[in-house]
Amino acid sequence: MSPLVTCRSHAMNDPIPDFDEACAARAARYLDTLTKPPGSLGRLEALAVSLAGITGEDFPTVTPPGVVVFAADHGVAAEGVSAFPPSVTAQMVANFVTGGAAINVFARRLGARLEVVDVGVAGELPPAGIVHDKVRRATGNLRREDAMSRDEAEAAIAVGRRATERALAADCRCLIVGEMGIANTTASSAMLAVLSGVPVADLVGEGTGVTQAALVHKRDVIEAALVARAADPDAPLDVLAKLGGLEIAAMVGAYLEAAAKRMPALVDGFIATVAALVACRLEPRVRSCLIFGHRSREPGHAHALAALSADPLLDLDLCLGEGSGAALAFPLLEAATAMLAEMATFEGAGVNDGGTGRHHDPV
Ligand SMILES: O=C(O)c1ccc[n+]([C@@H]2O[C@H](COP(=O)([O-])O)[C@@H](O)[C@H]2O)c1
Ligand SMILES: Cc1cc2nc[nH]c2cc1C
Predict the structure, then answer these.
(1) Ligand 1 and 89: CB distance under 6 A
(2) 3-state class of 165 per DSSP?
(3) How is the chain split into domains, by residue range?
(4) Sorting pLDDT into bands at 50, 70 and 90, what band is 5?
């Protein structure tokens, strides 16, 4: 075990509360008293109902949001599975610190708190502007050895929990979880193949843009790793430790803690959704606190979403990561809560409710 590891079992943490069905039902009834044909705001109404049930608040708030980007490197990058060298992970972390990445731009527009957490970056990092919570420098090459030990996976989950706790302490009301890690689509594809039973060939994708020849090689690397690691599909921590990534484990912890604290969590793309699947396999009650921001171009994302019966809000052909798609979806959550809080009722505005029994003009 790495000397940096502090072991804390996910099972020792706060229990996850139930989705507040009564609050959700009140929100649904109230929506039908607002000045619009019932259901006419479609999925925005469903979103408002979900946010009421997640938070247990009749008029939930999601501002300010907190963005957390977890960064780590992957030993499997040595197999030539990414279009970019692993040094780009540390370079992008430096870019997050100076504010030039896409997630910085989107977070600024949202007025979001943005935190970058090093869980396992191999290269040198700026001393300031990031949270140093490294479990180890990169995972092992999952083609040749386990990505990490069970203790290291648990330690990385604890890193994610702490990040959610900091966002809560800073009064953030919604968590946007992102990641940065060259080669993490290989780790995520391997994990998803085990957890879903979908053949690797059906879910592997170009990630940062590998050539067709490299894509065939990437598929072969993943298939060989699945045989060599023999992860137990019914043991999510085994899958995470043998095939996963440190930033993926941290995302699992961030979702677990958000659910424990009734904080809505916006899920980003492929890697984020595989992490969400692990969190839900560990604690099924996490599922109801997750809102899926967008559908990534990465082919595995559709399979990960199907495994969670999730239908994301946006489909913009993105495949960046960093939490970018989740950040772009956030204004819809804001609109849903504002609709609940600010729209006039039929009765208040003196609008005939069309005979639905919600409000009638005096005869
Ligand atoms: O979020 C997604 O759906 C997504 C899809 C493809 C790639 N990425 C990002 O690209 C990096 C991983 O791609 P790769 O090719 O190095 O495995 C990692 O930093 C991710 O944030 C992200
Ligand atoms: C440049 C670059 C930026 C990223 N952001 C998230 N993953 C990324 C991968 C690359 C290669």
Answers:
(1) no
(2) helix
(3) 63-332
(4) very low
